[in-house]
Amino acid sequence: MVKTCVICDAARAVLKRPKTGQQICKECFYHVFETEIHHTIIDNHLFSRGDKVAIGASGGKDSTVLAHVLKTLNGRYNYGLDLFLLSVDEGITGYRDDSLETVKRNQQQYDLPLKIVSYEELYHWTMDEIVKEVGLKNNCTFCGVFRRQALDRGAAMLDVDHIVTGHNADDIAETILMNILRGDTPRLQRCTEIVTTGESLIRRSKPFKYTYEKEIVMYAYFKKLDYFSTECTYSPNAYRGYARTFLKDLEAIRPTAILDIIQSGEAFQIKTEVKMPVQQTCVRCGYMSSNELCKACVLLEGLNRGLPKLGIGKTERLRKQHNLQVSEKPVITETAW
Amino acid sequence: MATLHIDVEFGGGMELLFKNVREHKIDMPEGSNLKDLITYIRDNLMTAKQDLFVMNDTVRPGILVLINEADWELCDGIEYKLEDGDRIIFISTLHGG
């Protein structure tokens, strides 16, 4: 049975919007999808004219669609942005080397300059080498901590004002659930913010904060965008996997659950008497940190000294032994970007 | 009984569950619905990780299904009655990006 688009009342509907339940056609879908992202950008004052903006590009669906949509909107609404693609090469054979090929094609397709920073040049360790040292249990911690910092460092090399990442509504709802389950209040507050600024003063934002993953994938499919879709060879973040399965089950029952969780996450208020970690600067590398030494430097020190467990979990004794300050909680990493 | 010729395609990483083959031609008996097709695929095209495709008698949440280029949520979902020449696409959304 063919259904007609509820917006134009003419063309055949191809998509049921998870956000609204509307049945819409391809052209109307492109229009509402792009326009909503435009409104998110404008309403939250994400950019200023003349900004240099780096798009964190992994070659996956989210960042590929983000590059396509930002390029389109920058032209359509004349934002006056200088756009770049910024990729991190973690040094994972058979995964990142393949996805970087996709990013290189995107560079041609969207005619945007591309910068690739590698763990090897920044840390003198590739993920392949790190996995050889630490095994497959905590490797995602290293990768997540290093990636976040690598993006900032790459952005500094490009001299950009702003990094945008492809985190979508589903990712953010998952992160909220994870932070609630772990009782991580500082991150619970931060994870719903659409714009954050770190020590480097480079703004970071998530233009897809309210964009459903389903619509991103449908958009990529209908527009025949070239993206890479293989699971990382070093196994996905298990904890995020549980949150994700739970969220997808909720979505199947009630699609608005995703936006509802984001709204609830935004509404959380931490009592003022609760002591929150104070942001400071890493004495070694100058990166923002909640301790004297930042997480990346602790992890790196562990690798270089042959003590890869140094920065993982409850290791205060080990750290004291080796003369490294720190009394911090185990790190929670964001793997989706 | 007449046979329905169905074109099946896997995308978004799902093809990895099917020896990296994206396109498959499958014949189904007349009167089959989408649920029958999904069961057939699980039992005949997969040798491992069936739970990454099928869960509780339907596709695992997070897998998008298109029937002739349209969201299956517009066409009776799992109960959709297959027609000869239908093109069914399964796209995984489960990969980071």
Automatic annotation (TrEMBL), chain A:
Pathway noted in the entry: tRNA modification; 5-methoxycarbonylmethyl-2-thiouridine-tRNA biosynthesis
PROSITE patterns tied to this protein: UPF0021
GO biological process: protein urmylation; tRNA wobble position uridine thiolation
Enzyme Commission (EC) number: 2.7.7.-
Domain tRNA(Ile)-lysidine/2-thiocytidine synthase N-terminal: from-to ranges: 52-240
Main location (coarse class): cytoplasm
Location of the protein in the cell: Cytoplasm
Residue spans crossing the bilayer: none
Keywords: ATP-binding, Cytoplasm, Nucleotide-binding, RNA-binding, Transferase, tRNA processing, tRNA-binding
One Pfam family recorded for the sequence: ATP_bind_3
Function in brief: Plays a central role in 2-thiolation of mcm(5)S(2)U at tRNA wobble positions of tRNA(Lys), tRNA(Glu) and tRNA(Gln). Directly binds tRNAs and probably acts by catalyzing adenylation of tRNAs, an intermediate required for 2-thiolation. It is unclear whether it acts as a sulfurtransferase that transfers sulfur from thiocarboxylated URM1 onto the uridine of tRNAs at wobble position. Prior mcm(5) tRNA modification by the elongator complex is required for 2-thiolation. May also be involved in protein urmylation.
Protein name per Swiss-Prot or TrEMBL: Cytoplasmic tRNA 2-thiolation protein 1
Species of origin: Bifiguratus adelaidae
UniProtKB/TrEMBL annotation, chain B:
Major localisation: cytoplasm
SUPFAM superfamilies registered for this protein in UniProt: MoaD/ThiS (SSF54285)
Sites of the Glycyl lysine isopeptide (Gly-Lys) (interchain with K-? in acceptor proteins) crosslink: 97
Pathway: tRNA modification; 5-methoxycarbonylmethyl-2-thiouridine-tRNA biosynthesis
A single BP term in Gene Ontology: tRNA wobble position uridine thiolation
GO cellular component, one term: cytosol
Listed GO MF terms: protein homodimerization activity; protein tag activity; sulfur carrier activity
UniProt keywords, alphabetically: Cytoplasm, Isopeptide bond, tRNA processing, Ubl conjugation pathway
Gene3D superfamilies registered for this protein in UniProt: 3.10.20.30
Function: Acts as a sulfur carrier required for 2-thiolation of mcm(5)S(2)U at tRNA wobble positions of cytosolic tRNA(Lys), tRNA(Glu) and tRNA(Gln). Serves as sulfur donor in tRNA 2-thiolation reaction by being thiocarboxylated (-COSH) at its C-terminus by the MOCS3 homolog UBA4. The sulfur is then transferred to tRNA to form 2-thiolation of mcm(5)S(2)U. Prior mcm(5) tRNA modification by the elongator complex is required for 2-thiolation. Also acts as a ubiquitin-like protein (UBL) that is covalently conjugated via an isopeptide bond to lysine residues of target proteins such as AHP1.
Family per similarity comment: Belongs to the URM1 family.
HAMAP family noted in UniProt: Urm1
Name used for this protein in its record: Ubiquitin-related modifier 1
Organism: Bifiguratus adelaidae
Designated gene of the protein: URM1
